[in-house]
Amino acid sequence: MYVKICGLREPGHVTAAVEAGADAIGFVLTRSPRRITPELARELAAEVPAHVLTVAVFAGETPQEVRRAATESGVRAVQLHGAHPHEDFTALKDLGLTLVRAGAAAGADLRCGAFDEDMLIVDAPRPGSGEPWDWAAVRGLPQGRWMLAGGLGPANVAEAVAAAQPWGVDVSSGVETAPGVKDAGLIREFVAAARG
Ligand SMILES: O=C(O)c1ccccc1N[C@@H]1O[C@H](COP(=O)(O)O)[C@@H](O)[C@H]1O
């Protein structure tokens, strides 16, 4: 089970996620209570070992804006949330980064790779809201390297995995004590429960 912890803002929480066994960690570079600057993302990413993927998260920015911020932050992957056209992914291909497409299930092409992306995230309608949704509704529909997200936490991730049978999971709100405030204990519990 591939596990991504998103919305990290502090070195201690980055360390907690890495030590807990996360496969990927996300830095939000778009409008959100979890937003950080590309400069801070670069500082945090510098401490992450090579086997953990560092991801910059965007929602609605132009490919030029994504390109600039991703380069400044030194991450190894970019995640585009929302209705980005195929051309936006094509425009970023030459960066050589892992490309992650993310959005709600309704109306989306659920084949990972359909937009030349490397990973797909199937999320709730409002990303980063912590709102659970009907995870079972997508069981058997997405194809390839796809992560389930939206309203997951230590207490429900095993149920969600059983319902949707994803390749991986992605969490932000569910490992926080308040919007944007991560908790190392919840991060550890989430990773263990996801793989349990
Ligand atoms: O985490 C955010 O604040 C965020 C903001 C804008 C776009 C994406 C964001 N994060 C992604 O949202 C889900 C997690 O949602 P939840 O809070 O666990 O319900 C995940 O895909 C994050 O990568």
Short description:
With 196 residues, the protein is an alpha/beta fold. The protein contains six helices and ten strands.
- Give the SSE order as H and E letters: EHEHEHEHEEEHEEEH
| Percent in strands | 15-25%
**Weakly predicted, low-confidence segments:** none
CATH class: Alpha Beta
In angstroms, what is the radius of gyration? 15 Å
Mean pLDDT figure: 97
Order of strands across the main sheet: 1-2-3-4-5-6-7-8
Q: What does it look like?
A:
It contains six helices and ten strands. With 196 residues, the protein is of the alpha/beta class. It has a single domain (2-195), classed as Aldolase class I (TIM Barrel, Alpha-Beta Barrel), CATH 3.20.20. It has an eight-stranded parallel β-barrel with strand order 1-2-3-4-5-6-7-8, surrounded by four helices. α1 (11-20) packs parallel to α6 (184-195). It is globular. The termini are close together. The mean pLDDT is 97. It binds the ligand O=C(O)c1ccccc1N[C@@H]1O[C@H](COP(=O)(O)O)[C@@H](O)[C@H]1O. The site of the ligand O=C(O)c1ccccc1N[C@@H]1O[C@H](COP(=O)(O)O)[C@@H](O)[C@H]1O has 27 residues, from β2, β3, β6 and β8.
